[in-house]
Amino acid sequence: MFVSPLREPQPGDHLVSPRLGFEHHGLYLGNQHVMHYAGGMSTSGAGESDGIERVSLETFTQGNIFRVESHPYRRFTHDEAITRAWLRLGEQRYHPAFNNCEHFVQWCIEGVSHSPQVSRWLLRAASATDNPWLGGAVLLGGILGHLIMMPTRRE
User: Which residues are in the LRAT domain (predicted)?
Assistant: First the structure.
């Protein structure tokens, strides 16, 4: 069973649940259901999925805790964010760096597909090498990939 956050989620809230080495993101729909980009983590019973799916809150958390991520300057209301999520249900364009669960939820709420988690990973990867050319190439590759994917999700 999952552990409740400090406050109960409201429909349209951004949920974050820790996994080993990363955080998983979803949009709370209400009635104990979440819309998320499965990214090969589907436990809905239909086999492995890389698509956007609706699952129970318990399935989303996989027994882990979760928190509600704050969006003080959200572009879309909670109801609008839910409507946007339903528009992408079943989409099968998952990519861990350019179109993941966090990109999906950020797009639903803010209107722009981005992942601060991926940005942090890219900066760490770029700074982890003693070779400035290699670090720069990693960072540039991440930025270019992000820019290529953004126009398909910007409104």
Answer: 14-117
